[in-house]
Amino acid sequence: MSLDYPVLEVLPSLRQSLANHPIVILQAPPGAGKSTMLPWMLLDEPWLAQKRIIMLEPRRLAAKSVAMRMAHMMKEDIGETIGYRVRFEQVRSERTRCDVVTEGILTRMIQGNNSLEDTGLIIFDEFHERSLHADLALALCCQIQQILRPDLKILIMSATLDAENISAVLNNAPVVSSAGRQHPVTIHYAPQEKNVALPSAVSRTILKAYRDQPGDLLVFLPGTGDIHRTLELLTNEGLGMNVFPLYGDLPFARQQEAIVPNRNGIRKIVLSTSIAETSLTIEGITTVIDSGYSRIPKFDPRSGLTTLETVRVTKDAADQRAGRAGRLGPGVCYRMWGENTHHNLQPARSPEILEADLAPMLLELYNWGTKEISDLVWITAPPAGAISQAKDLLTQLNALKDELITERGKRMLRLPTHPRLAHMLLADSHHVALATDIASLLEERDPLEKNAGADLSLRVEYLRRWRNGQQVPADKNALEKIERLAATWRKILKCSVDNTVPGESQVGALVAEAYPERIARQIERHSPRYKLTNARVVRLMDHDPLLREPWLAIAQVDSGAGEGKIFLAAPIHEDDLVHRAIEKEIMAWNYDKGMLVASYEKRIGNVVLASRPMTAINETQRLDILCNVIRKEGLSLLNWTDHQKSWQSRVMSLHGWRKDEGWPDVSTENLLATAMDWLGPYITNIYRRQDFQKLDLGNILTAILPWAIGNKLDILAPPRLVVPSGSMISLTYKPDGSPPVMEVRLQEVFGLLETPTVNDGRTKVLLHLLSPGHKPVQVTQDLRSFWQTAYHEVRKEMRMRYPRHHWPEDPWTAEAMRGAKRRKQ
């Protein structure tokens, strides 16, 4: 067997680095042989001291394939020197010295033996994928290395990796690089036509590439739905092509059909998810077709929901996909996007730790004994918001209490599933078999079509009828996978199969154990809209049979741009929720109804089960609520008219003019901030919005002014002044203390020699002198000067415009009048 792998050229350097350093980073392109060659070639290193090697692979299929490939190279059966451990399956023996494990398995091994005495090297393969489990396992391994096992070696391997930054985080770990022997790949950019569905566009490109290029084709599509639709389109072409799907949920035997070359040399087309990007080798591929998309899970801490999002591929992933065409010789890659689009792609994928549900990781850390997340070495620190969300959830699931893991939490952690499902599996000893069926249905692909409705109870019923040999309208392959998983759970939990029809709300009661924050109450009878206990609103599809159910326990729902869509749920009886309810005294202002409400409510989060009126009301709390209403809605709630605004401005003017006399700050901001002080005694009988309008603001505001100065307001800042015509003219004050304004017709101030004043003569009024038509002709604070100078020009203009009015030559002695001059009798 030829061992002409590029990575072997750097093997001496790698051996030396591992001998001298606790952590080493290996950078090698796809196809260099790092996954299948290095682990077994390091087994006899002196520093390993005959201890074993554990290699972490991100995906189940890759773990099994890599292990089998290594065993084949060593001319052994799998389970001898080389073994593997994946979820619910392992092939190994006492002779096994190299275990290839999937994510989660390594963490379980660490938790079970926190010093890993029999392990000398841990390899993190395909670390560039930055999975949550890989980041967590690396953080734990680094702590083991620092505290318990300084002899433990860590090797981080990747095809595309920001090695320098990771090295800096890991105490400047050395980086060994393998150039590899990648053959040239010709890139064709083939942008997808607008308004053409992705499977249709991809199938057209496949047909073109199948005609134009030799060898086998590898096609990257976002998800299984796209794969099946593309497969159907190609089958309908009737060309007799060998087309194989490849994705994680396929049985291993069918995955192998896609990976292994045809013995008769017949060409094949492999339709794959991103599972085929890296360590998984598919022989015979010379052409790659990249749709440009992938599906990734994203967790929203605000909603507590994880959804699969179809996103643009990143540059590093696109390069890896293209590289699959150049492993055997020169290849071709069709990219279904434009070259300009390619230049704008995100350089690399985001670490999963930034976008994932951190509840499983946090439970691991509490069991490990870590309370401060920052105590561990993180390549990327987990977000504080997601950590807080995870902590709240684990507390609801009784896995944490007082910042410590509970016995229930430890039992949950021993089950290889998400804490939610682990809590459900342990929740009810009388319905364990039902819990295993529900968990299996939730973890595997839905066996029913999209238009089958959201009822999870119906799926349990079909699964059990199918197990009894009855015909059911469900996908048989999906049911087989669900049953295999359910049988595994029954074996772990030591329970017998149960094929009876579950009770009316038994499924919902168990779902609520896993998703307590997704208990939902129907907003209106037969409405598709439901309110979750976390206050979000979600909805069923129209005409879903579950619309008759007032209460649901929701297992699957998307976060949605507005209202999330319910995918899987089960009815739950209100009686099953009473133990979750907490009775609270609720006193609040109902802004929709404009009234104070006070009641005792039994609540689950934000959803009310029952309510009764509150008999004894806490007056202090009531006043606080009413004052907060005023702060939110403003002084207009109090029928704050122009009269009150004028009073406010007059007092604020004196507040600025006469700082030493104690005039209070009655600005809107301060009145709202101190509402309890000046308004509290007057709102003891307020219950509705209209009650605020009935308050006697005149007396209330007068009481704000200290008694010693209150009677001086009208003297120092009079609201009106008398002018020579005998009219009482209003003054407009401003809160900033600028001069008050008097708007008065010019003819009414004939004979007035000096500018009027306020503030005990200290502040001159700003006169807006108006024409008979109430248009301003002059603005002045110096009336004497106006009479002496500008008046004569104004007089000329006004005599022509208003000839019926009196425009004397001598305004000093002229009689002031309100209207036109009187006619002589």
Could you explain how this protein is built, in words?
The protein is built from 29 helices and 33 strands. It is α/β, with parallel strands linked by helices and 825 residues long. Strands 4-3-5-2-6-7-1-8 form an 8-stranded mixed β-sheet, with helices on both faces. It has a 6-stranded parallel β-sheet with strand order 9-16-13-10-12-11, with helices on both faces. Strands 19-20-21-23-22 form a 5-stranded mixed barrel. Strand 17 and strand 18 form a beta hairpin. Helix 15 crosses helix 19. The longest helix has 18 residues.
Outline:
This protein is of the alpha/beta class and 825 residues long.
Q: Number of DSSP helices?
A: 29
Stretches where pLDDT falls below 50 for ≥5 residues?
none
Biggest pleated-sheet summary: 8 strands, mixed
Q: What would the principal axes of the Cα set say about the shape? A: elongated
Strand content: 15-25%
Task: Give the total of beta strands.
Answer: 33
- Summing up helix and strand content along with how strands pair, one would put the structural category as alpha/beta
Rg: 40 Å
On the 0 to 100 scale, the average pLDDT is 90
Distance between the termini: 135 Å
> Into which percent range does the helicity of residues fall?
25-40%
Strands across the major sheet, in which order?
A: 4-3-5-2-6-7-1-8
